[in-house]
Design goal:
homotrimer, 30% strand, Thiol Ester Dehydrase, Chain A, alpha+beta
């Protein structure tokens, strides 16, 4: 065949265009492709992409002092990699990622562990326009020992292959508003009794946080074009809206969207300033991306302490439920003001993330 | 010396400006600098830079099931790192990278292996303008055990130091149009008998591909400025055209060129959608960069199955010869159309890559 | 709490806004947060961010031949990670990073080592405007065995919390203009007797460099937006001026500043072309960032050999003191000219770095 020969054969249908609403059935079990071994390279990239400084993930000496034989992998990184596995099957044709619930981290993940992910369809609701529907899935990521590392529920609005009069599909799952923190969500060897504030740079521990208290995390982070695309490719999340700037030119926002999980990680990294001892992510109770973000946006965040509690037989730690609000493109003065200003709030908020941290007492 | 003192001494000549056409002689053997140990960090960066999802390189569990004691390194990454070693000696003064041939992967590469690269000059042809010539080299990368990992031939147009009437140098090498797949190009322990389609997400195996069949890989990837420069620096490829935007402002295209190998890797990553079980790159039969790419371009690709074949005594796998065409900045409709449209084809094509994959039966 | 609920509680003061001039006292010892384990991922990212090709850090085989059981980590990377630890306590409110001195590398750093950093306040000088002062610190990074890896002095101009009539604080430390190279600054097992020029690609060794000689490193490197922010986040350096483009729009330069250390590393990487056998960084005698750099700038550099010397009982190596001048946005002709042109020099220079390299004899 010469360089300029024109092909005669027909195109095959071996490429996959993603699942549509009609392709999902209640109780379907979907085994996602591309199990993934997590490496030291992933961990360094996560630091380079977010600037995260939570010390349990940075230093073997600190991890050892907290009862881990090796440095655990940041659960946000674990979540993004596990989540990425579900995208080709669940959300390639998603109109919107509507929400998360009941995300719980059951076993710590270490460098060298291989994650495999499955999802079960737990709810389906057709929209009244007959063009889209909402798919609810329960996803579970296990390691090579078959231990559950992380599980979560999420729901996405997915296009129908063929618009039609609504067929009445309406089966909603039960979703808990928060994850109850039990000893199951505390890594077996974790022990904060020897934790040294000097390693995190913060003297604020469990007893110092009050329910209702607000923390302005002050710092900002601008998202450069390669930052978010590197992150999203690292997670092998292949949703087109994050990568194809040419196609996105003619879409609603005229440019690629930043993967919402990257915003979650930036906010988590920024929240170090005020929450440095919120060391272990035990659960994500809920999350929503209230507006899209784009390359060039600068992200800031504030957090409110929603709840806190202790566990029987644990004198070394307690849990703190935090709601972090990500906002973009505000001055420092506006960030202070916006908590009392509904307009600023509505126009600049990009993320609400409700999660539970384990914190040394 | 004070901060603003002006120097009195002359500049030394210790910097290297690259070889010119007159610097090469037939049968020269060039030992390239900077042997390189490949690490887990390189592997993660390759994922972050390309989004590649070929599962043999992603999960230790899958690599083990395919007969490897450890996860092999993607041969495209191996090629780029080995290729980068040859740039300072061969193509720093290249006008154009004209082509590749006979690239064959003889031993798998693992994290911790150190590659050393040598090239032999196998052909020289002066151009009739007296200003440039074509240099043909055969490059060989070996690991620390002196096993050949990959070898290839390539030819580049190189400037002459001094333009002159042509001297008649015209010695062309033999170049095979395809690499014959023998057992030598199959890693010793490789065995696809236990390969599970669920790990790759595709049910299409060796017998499902027909010679002549076209696959539209559908997805697109926009190249952000840091993406390609990070990749090219990772490969320690120091060709100026990729890095010096200030100097390139006054060059033909007014901006840095994307390293052609990055386009190869993006196309390979996109080809996962339709070729997910083309797991092992055994050979690159030929390749040419038919137009330059720049930051901001969005890359798509289509592939045609050129040939396929089986090997005696291998019931677990066969080989598939694929030609992948990289194109840029087309709508999805245009990508479907362009196969029959010579004009679109000519205006948007950036890459032709002819390569051979091992695929489970 | 609903999505749009407005908070009632007051903001807490748990976030940290950095230390001001009044917060420092002479002889204060500050233990910096976030000890950091260096990994293979960090090393690969450093290569991807700088393109560095100094072979001692690239190949286990070469490191072994030079007496190291494992590949050492590039001391520039070690410095940036150690330096990053000091930023939250020392320079978050810095107006300017004024200089470095007496930076000496005492023990080699290997993948897996954990660095912890402390600083002592060794000088304080209030400025006559009553608004700012200069803080001098001596910082020491130790590994998990309590060996000193690197120590340095630096001074920064820091804002006062409250402008006032000057209080007369004026205590200056002694600062040596160069670090004396003793056997203490040579890694115990280092031996260049078996070093092979072919591995670095350069035949220029200790005896080939003359005091006063200038080297034009020729090559240029453009800084893309994500390049410098990835580097600075990898080092966990959280100075706002590098990350918050929104806030920087209203600051003096209208955009984020590139971390000066990234310029140092780019110049070091470019200096390979002419100084490829300047393998081991023993000391940084002094450094100053003479102008800020921004995304989009293209960096070039020239170096002058300032001094050289031998050590008793070392037949394998000598030291070379080098001053490297980083410049930006010059044509190749201008770079050759600027050494004799005070105007070009003043307008384009961004870095002066005075350092000492160990070089095979």
């Amino acid at each position: 065949m010469t360089n300029n020969a024109l092909p005669q054969a027909q195109l095959s249908d071996k490429h996959f265009q993603g699942n549509f609403f009609e392709d999902f059935e209640l109780d379907d079990l979907i085994r996602h492709a591309t199990p993934r071994t997590i490496t030291e390279g992933d961990v360094s990239l996560y630091t380079a992409l977010t600037g995260s400084r939570f010390v349990l993930y940075c230093a073997t000496t600190v991890a050892n002092a907290c009862g881990f034989a090796r440095t655990p992998v940041d659960n946000f990184l674990v979540f993004h990699i596990a989540f990425g596995k579900t995208v080709p099957d669940i959300s390639l044709n998603a109109v919107a990622n509507l929400g998360y619930a009941e995300c719980q981290f059951e076993s710590p993940c270490f460098v060298g562990d291989t994650l495999s992910v499955e999802s079960k369809v737990i709810g389906l609701k057709e929209n009244s326009n007959g063009k889209t529907g909402i798919v609810y899935v329960h996803s579970v990521a296990k390691n090579q020992h078959n231990d559950i590392v992380v599980s979560w529920k999420r729901w996405v609005m997915v296009r129908k292959k063929v618009a039609s009069a609504p067929t009445g599909i309406d089966s909603l799952p039960n979703l808990a508003s928060t994850v109850t923190i039990t000893s199951q969500l505390i890594p077996q060897t974790l022990d904060f009794a020897q934790f040294d504030n000097a390693s995190s740079g913060s003297n604020h521990r469990y007893h110092d946080y009050q329910v209702g208290e607000w923390i302005n995390h002050v710092d900002g982070m601008t998202i450069n074009p390669s930052d978010h695309s590197l992150a999203t490719r690292l997670y092998q999340n292949n949703a087109k809206v994050h990568f194809d700037a040419y196609a996105m030119k003619s879409a609603r926002h005229g440019q690629p969207l930043v993967y919402g999980g990257h915003i979650m990680s930036i906010c988590r990294a920024l929240s170090h300033n005020g929450l440095a001892n919120g060391l272990w992510l035990a659960a994500i109770n809920g999350g929503s991306h209230t507006a899209p973000s784009f390359a060039g946006d600068t992200i800031y965040c504030v957090s409110q302490i929603m709840d806190k509690g202790e566990l029987p037989d644990r004198t070394d730690l307690g849990w703190i439920r935090v709601k972090t609000f990500g906002v973009k493109n505000l001055t420092l003065q506006q960030i202070s003001d916006f908590i009392d200003d509904q307009t600023l709030w509505d126009e600049h908020k990009v993320l609400e993330l409700d999660y539970t941290l384990l914190c040394p007492k």
